[in-house]
Input
Amino acid sequence: MEERLRDLAGRLGEALAARGWMLGCAESCTGGLLASVLTDAPGASSWFTGAVVAYANAVKRDVLGVSQDTLDAKGAVSREAVLAMARGARGVMRADVAVAISGVAGPSGGTPQKPVGTVWMAWEGPDGVAVKRFQFDGDRLAVKRQAAREAMAGVLAMATGSGIGGDAEAMRP
Output
């Protein structure tokens, strides 16, 4: 899995560099794993601006601009939260494209509405916005790795113009 993540990060970096885009990230349940994988790629500084690990809701609110109303009404693991996180990361990082991840990695913390493995992601770039809910299997590390992989795949799809696809909801900025 580690090697596949590194290969994907390398391909993503090439695609971002080809577009002249800089990437910023907002991570919650992945706890910086995505940023770590991205910075393992040689030359990452030419296409990666950085990440905010917004594990606490206060950071989502105060740094990324997720409204307290959204956090209270929808929760941190929601469509609305990741959309706001992606927009906030793009602004804070002064990035062309951003990805946001928030979920329940487990082994505890799940609910019937948001079981362990539930992860929401949003991608925002110059050509639009997309959001998608995932249900991953496995232990905590497996969920985090799957989330990092899907986050990179979504950015790669945006950078190559192929669209995120699947059941992702695409929107205009």
In short: Residues 140-160 form the longest helix (21 residues). The chain has a mean pLDDT of 94. The two ends are 33 Å apart (CA to CA).
